[in-house]
Amino acid sequence: MSQPASTTPPPPDSSSPNLDPAQLVGGEGPPPATAAAPDNNPAASPATKALHGKKLSLEARNASLRAQIEEVRAKRDEVKSQLRTQDAAATVKKHIRLLHDYNEIRDVGTGLMGMIADSRGVRVRDIYAEFGVEVKD
What is the pLDDT along the chain (137 residues), one digit of tens a residue? Predict the structure, then answer.
């Protein structure tokens, strides 16, 4: 004997690219045409009415959260478009180049200060103080 075919559709596949996110979260659409809203149905139990109220509240909160998500995405895109470079590797490479340039300039400055100190016959620390440079700079 064979099993009768199931008439219920399979649950939606969350990896499907054509799937509406609202279907995964409980949907935003109206309830099925065969179901009467419990608030309008005098035969509905208080528990059913309470659950329906919770459902409506959750659907409203979901809609609000979706709107917030869209606002945050829009802000993220705006900030991202204002970045000078959007490639993180290029930014890191530029910073490394700038640090290298700084170190070369600092080394030249330190060498010049040493030469000035030698020519005057004073300590390098005294030259640093004369030019307003800290030893740690």
Answer: 455 555 555 554 444 444 455 455 544 455 554 455 666 777 788 889 899 999 999 999 999 999 999 999 999 999 888 877 668 888 899 999 999 999 999 999 999 999 999 999 999 999 999 999 887 76
- Is residue 39 within 8 A of residue 48, CB to CB? The reply is no
DSSP annotation of 19 reads: -
Considering the entire predicted model, what is its pTM? 0.40
Q: Which pair of structure tokens corresponds to residue 84?
A: 């000078």
Positive or negative: CA dihedral 36, 39, 41, 46: positive
Could you tell me if 124 and 114 are in contact, meaning their C-beta atoms sit under 8 angstroms apart?
yes
